[in-house]
């Protein structure tokens, strides 16, 4: 018995050690992935900030060009209207409108088209279609998943008939 207790203690120790190594490995992998994602997010934020400043400079340039032939207030007003119209167009492009039916968007898949149903009546990617009800449910054919429990007599008669 002492030998079995000693082996059981070694097994527990081994399992604990393996668990600790697995945890440390996973933590290190997650740290590396997080570092990469953090760097990418910082680059996207910097890109967005620079794009905002570029847009402001473009709006300023448009206003200055218009102010050459118009009063300053009119140039600023026209610039604001142009920027508002651009924002409205971009908002419309980003949001689905009521004029586009949902049926067109339901069949689309990011990166291409949805896989078609192959000939033979099987479902997408060769999987057979799912039955509407699980097999054996509500049929009363067997003890598993039946709507009525099988009686002891019917089980006994079934075994005698074999």
Task: Characterise the protein shown here.
With 162 residues, this protein is mainly alpha-helical. 64% of the residues lie in helices and 2% in strands. A hairpin with a 2-residue loop joins strand 1 and strand 2 (112-113). Helix 1 (2-67) runs antiparallel to helix 2 (72-94). The chain is elongated, with a radius of gyration of 35 Å.
Overview in brief:
The chain contains four helices and two strands.
Proportion of residues in helical segments: 55-70%
Q: What spatial order of strands do you see in the largest sheet?
A: 1-2
Strand content: under 5%
Mean pLDDT: 74
In the predicted model, the low-confidence regions spanning at least 5 consecutive residues are: none
Dominant shape? elongated
Q: Main traits of this protein?
A:
64% helix, 162 residues, mainly alpha
Provide the fold topology.
Layout: H1 2-67, H2 72-94, H3 102-106, E1 108-109, E2 112-113, H4 152-160
Antiparallel strand pairs: 1-2
Helix pairs in contact: 1-2
């Amino acid at each position: 018995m002492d030998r079995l207790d000693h082996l059981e203690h070694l097994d527990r120790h081994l399992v604990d050690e393996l668990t600790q190594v697995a945890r440390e490995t996973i933590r290190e992998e997650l740290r590396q992935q997080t570092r990469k994602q953090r760097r990418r997010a910082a680059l996207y934020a910097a890109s967005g900030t620079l794009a905002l400043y570029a847009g402001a400079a473009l709006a300023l340039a448009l206003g200055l060009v218009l102010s050459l032939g118009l009063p300053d207030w009119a140039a600023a007003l026209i610039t604001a209207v142009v920027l508002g119209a651009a924002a409205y167009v971009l908002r419309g492009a980003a949001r689905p409108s009521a004029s586009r039916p949902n049926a067109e968007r339901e069949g689309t898949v990011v990166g291409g088209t949805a896989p078609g149903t192959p000939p033979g009546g099987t479902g997408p990617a060769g999987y057979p279609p799912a039955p509407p009800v699980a097999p054996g449910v509500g049929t009363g054919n067997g003890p598993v998943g039946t709507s009525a429990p099988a009686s002891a007599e019917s089980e006994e008669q079934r075994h005698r008939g074999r």
